[in-house]
Amino acid sequence: MTLATQHDSGQSSLPAAGSAAPPRPPGAGPASAPATRIAIHNLTVHYGTFCAVRNVTLDIPANQVTAIIGPSGCGKSTVVRSLNRMTDLVPGARVSGEAILDGENILRPEVDVVNVRRRIGMVFQRPNPFPKSIYDNVAYGPRLHGVRDRDLDEVVERTLRGAALWDEVKDKLHQSALALSGGQQQRLCIARAMAVEPEVILMDEPASAIDPIGTLRIEELIADLRATYTIVIVTHNMQQASRVSDVTAFFTMDEDRAGYMVEFGPTIEIFTNPRNQLTEDYVSGRFG
Amino acid sequence: MLGLAGLAAFLAVLPLAWIIVYVTQAGLPALTLDFFTNLPTPVGVPGGGIINAIVGSAITVGLGLLLAGPVGTLVAIYATANAERPIGTVIRFATDTLSGVPSIVMGIFAYTIVVLPQRHFSALAGGVVLAFIMLPIVIRSTEEMLKLVPSSLREASLALGAAEWRTWRNVLVPAAWNGILTGLMLAVARAAGEAAPMLFTAFGNPFMSVSLDQPIATLPHTIYIYAISPYEDWRAKAWATALVLIILVLALNVAARYVTGRRARKLGTVTR
Ligand SMILES: Nc1ncnc2c1ncn2[C@@H]1O[C@H](COP(=O)(O)OP(=O)(O)OP(=O)(O)O)[C@@H](O)[C@H]1O
Ligand SMILES: [Mg+2]
Predict the structure, then answer these.
(1) d(CA B253, CA B34)
(2) φ and ψ at residue A228, rounded to 5 degrees
(3) Which residues in chain A are closer than 8 Å to B159, comparing Cβ atoms?
(4) What is the CATH number of the domain that holds A215?
(5) Nearest CB partner across the interface for A130, out of B84, B156, B161
(6) Rg for chain B (alpha carbons), in Å?
(7) Once rounded to an integer, what is the mean pLDDT over residues A174-199?
(8) Out of A30-39, B38-47, B137-146, B229-238, which region has the weakest mean confidence (pLDDT)?
(9) Looking at the domain B52-271, which fold is it?
(10) Could you tell me if residue A149 is inside a domain?
(11) Which ligand lies nearest the alpha carbon of A73?
């Protein structure tokens, strides 16, 4: 896989991995009329009295990679974290609006967060494997959700193969995950998220703490995974966004520092032919 | 400046070395194999050992650990999970206060709530008072260790759909386990050396007893009895008992280090 530049985005970026990805015309952006996996409507998040994001409305397409880009502090993480209710952990955080997954607003306080988090997994900026063996990391989620011990071996192997990590770790499954390289740890974290078979995987700058080769691996993996999962990736790396994503949302901040979405569309459009001046300034590097 | 610090360090280590050397010198002569395996003999009868006190200390300290370990760990989890809320502060304050209560006061308290209703001294009462003494140590050390576990692990677990209690049980407590174990060891070492509260609770027993319902001998209490006696051979036995106590506490510490070290090596990390 070659490092694509901004202008051939989406073309050379898709690896010829033998995944079951439906063939998609290169560079054509999203396939025609993709189904919406999560319909976000008027999402607003406050931390105490501070409004971090305001009125975000965005349809996350199923089985595609949605990139969220924008300057630091514009609320990218906040949006993503509200989708699997990690915002519940922040005292004083208030989330309003809707995020409809299969007809249900998952932002309502009454919904079962365990179920939401099971259906919408998350990978964090810094690899955070448990200080347990590689095997136990992957098996953690399935064990929680009642997979029987005798079925675990198979689940772990299948998941690690799916995460293209199996060949690297199959001889040391019972060694500490912390002995892996940063990039491998992050792919293990992706595998750990995959193991509970979520529909959506949120990734908040998954490669920002990883070296270039490791980053490449993660990008290849993401391209593979979109056949099975809906992926939302936050990134500061324009080239990465253009390489891995089908659609891109650009966020920025108001004068009062509240984040909002400026533009949303096929990645190729956002990078080559943005409608908004702010987007153009940002993707061409003229921002800030 | 550094020289001064070095001198201070030397002065800090000196008492420990001095105590160990002195107790070894004083205790070694009376320390035979029989001393470990025999029951005490009356004054003047040669031989005799402290097997009853070794067993009694194991029983009372073990009972204390059994009571204070789980409770203290749970309290520490609760306090850590609620660190920012008022209840967290209240727990911390209460724990600090509890650790400041003199052990003899704890002894009188246990006497009131266990010995008086039962109408007799017992190993049970001794275990209870040791639990009181261990509790704040366990809580504070466990809390410190849990605070060191990165919050990213908690997020990782919750993001997989784990409930909060499972996250604590399966991820956070295991990640802090080495530290927690060290804290338990500290508590055991502290409790194993308590003589004063035993006067009101376990009371002592010259015979072998393994019953929770009967008075029981303990090492520090045996040291006390022997040391204040007017008999030369009992005082020698006091030193020998002191040496046994020190060796046991040291051995426990080494064992704990070995266990935690092995775990740490297996996981490729030291969670400290
Ligand atoms: N737990 C929190 N408590 C209070 N304010 C917060 C909290 N988390 C984020 N914020 C604020 O909300 C705003 C958006 O933060 P967020 O982390 O979502 O931005 P971001 O776009 O992900 O930034 P970056 O690119 O630096 O990761 C920022 O002003 C930030 O200071
Ligand atoms: Mg962020």
Answers:
(1) 25
(2) -105, -30
(3) 84, 86, 117, 121-122, 124, 193
(4) 3.40.50.300
(5) B156
(6) 21
(7) 94
(8) A30-39
(9) MetI-like fold (1.10.3720)
(10) no
(11) 1
Contact between B53 and B195 under an 8 Å Cβ cutoff? The reply is no
Q: Which two tokens stand for residue A67?
A: 């990139």
User: Is the torsion defined by CA of B85, B91, B94, B96 positive or negative?
Assistant: negative
Is A205 part of a structural domain of the chain?
Answer: yes
Interface A-B, measured as beta-carbon pairs within 8 A, has a size of: 75
Q: State residue A2's pLDDT score.
A: 42
Provide the pLDDT for residue B265. Answer: 59
Domain ranges of chain B: 52-271
Q: Which residues contact A193 (CB under 8 A, 6 or more apart)?
A: A121, A122, A123, A141, A201, B159, B160
The tens digit of pLDDT for each residue in A227-248 reads 999 999 999 999 999 999 999 9
> What's the gap in Å between A73 CA and the centre of ligand 1?
5
**How many angstroms does the Cα of residue A27 sit away from the middle of ligand 2?**
28
* Site of tokens 């035993």: B198
- Report DSSP letters for B169-196, one per residue: IIIIHHHTHHHHHHHHHHHHHHHHT--G
Predicted ipTM?
0.84
Token code pair at residue B54? 């070794």
3-state DSSP: chain A helix, strand, coil percent, rounded to 5? 35, 25, 40
The mean per-residue pLDDT over the stretch A32-53 comes to: 91
Instruction: Give the pLDDT of residue B264.
Output: 61
Q: What is the mean pLDDT of chain B?
A: 91
Q: Which domain holds residue A221?
A: 32-126+200-283
Indicate the residue type of A191: A
Q: Residue A109 domain-assigned?
A: yes
Number of domains in chain A: 1
Which pTM does this prediction carry?
0.82
The total number of residues shown for chain A amounts to 288
Q: Per the domain annotation, does A4 fall within a domain?
A: no
Residue type, B262: R
pLDDT recorded at residue B149: 92
Instruction: Indicate whether A12 pLDDT > 90.
Output: no
Report H helices in chain B. Answer: 2-27, 33-37, 51-81, 86-100, 103-110, 116-118, 123-147, 151-159, 164-167, 173-175, 177-192, 219-227, 232-267
Q: How far is the CA of A71 from the centre of ligand 2 (A)?
A: 9
Spatial CA neighbour of B77 closest among B138, B143, B166: B143
A76 lines ligand 1 (CB under 6 A): yes
How many angstroms separate the first and last alpha carbons of chain B? 29
Is any ligand 1 atom within 6 A of the Cβ of residue A94? no
The answer on pLDDT for A24 being more than 60 is: no
